[in-house]
Amino acid sequence: MFKNFSRSDFTATNILIIITVLMYVIQINMSNGGLYLGLNLYFIVYDFWWQPLSTMFAHGGIAHLGMNMFVLYQFGNLIERSRSSKELLLLYFICGILTSLFSFLYIYFLDPNVNLVGASGAICAILGYVAYYDKVQRSGIITWILLISVAPLLIGLPIAWYAHFIGLAIGFIYAFIRK
Q1: 120 is catalytic
Q2: Catalytic residue among 54, 100, 120, 149
Q3: Is 64 a known active-site residue?
Q4: What is the tens place of the pLDDT at every residue in 126-138?
Q5: Which pLDDT does position 3 carry in this prediction?
Q6: Which of 18, 38, 68, 144 is surrounded by the most beta carbons within 10 Å?
């Protein structure tokens, strides 16, 4: 079965995807897994210090997981090929955790009943990073983030639109600092 896999299949992007899928399986098999692994007031009330990281691996359903992993696959591999695996991992984890922390401030002060789950913030940071370097694609990336942030709200889906914008900004700033 594993004969068809080569070393080149084990990119940082693919490993992130595998870990995220495995964490989702763990999450859905835990009692209240989304609450423990998502980002919410438990972060400070019960000292759930892992939440800014674990929220990047928890998801609100299989469609949410699939969409995020599809975009991660596209843009993560792009960054790995153009920069390096190390740069992708630094970008993903530093910007993902920063996005979680800034999103938590939004939750704490403006919407304390939220349970934030998903890799969207870290993925939007990747998109912000790409937008910094690729000026031709910049307006398309910003339009896409506006679309995925506002359209679901218009039809009543509870998404963390603020995490998308925070991630985009943090990824852009990260690219500016790292240039």
Answers
A1: yes
A2: 120
A3: no
A4: 999 999 999 999 9
A5: 64
A6: 38
